[in-house]
Design brief:
Layout: H1 2-11, E1 13-17, E2 19-22, H2 27-40, H3 43-51, E3 55-57, H4 60-63, H5 72-77, E4 82-84, E5 93-95, H6 114-125, E6 129-132, E7 138-140, H7 147-152, E8 175-178, E9 181-184, H8 185-206
Parallel strand pairs: 1-6, 2-7
Antiparallel strand pairs: 1-5, 2-3, 4-6, 8-9
Helix pairs in contact: 2-3, 6-8
Amino acid sequence: LPDLLRSCEAGRAVWVLPAWETHKRLGLEEGRRVADRAIRGDKATLRQLESESALHFFAKTAYARGHSATNFTRWLQADLPYDVAYEINYEPWFIMSRRLIPPYDVRFRGYGWNKVQQVASVALQYNFTFRVHPHVWLVHRPHEASAGQKMYGGSGGGGGAEKEQPHGQGQLDEIREWRGSRAPVSRLFHRRVSALRHTAIRDMRRGSYRAAEDPQSEHCR
């Protein structure tokens, strides 16, 4: 790990860790067993599970453009690191020097777009290269959807998690007002996140974007 961090600083690169998840048809219990097998096994085990459609790259069915730039087909056969071009809405997990990484924007607190926004900042503001590690990977263990995921309208819990409808029950369907518009809480949440996303992208293009930080973390390095 220290060597990876030094290479991040010296070469202005981040190390992308390809992420996988189990197929939703397996359900939670079997999905967790497959996830454990994938993370404990070697790359050959991962290739076998992928060929059996027991797992696929993370969010392939829910939000493929978040991870497809990693090029998982190439990664499965790769023995050496390779660079990939940043694509809009790319959101891989990666290793980067703590001294250089931009913070999450706390305006996105809750669920949705905070990681996408941070990755965009790494690529567009700081001009880091995305370098895929050929021998390290992550496997998402399926779980029940969180309250935030339910409000956002996607399962997000990985393979086997029950997909929620965009409008939940109880408080999620409560009618509230925001910026002169009255709608269910879940719909207003979508609108708020979309508005924040639009503002952040606009500021990035102007060269004036700065992630909003909690006061407690401003000097945490």
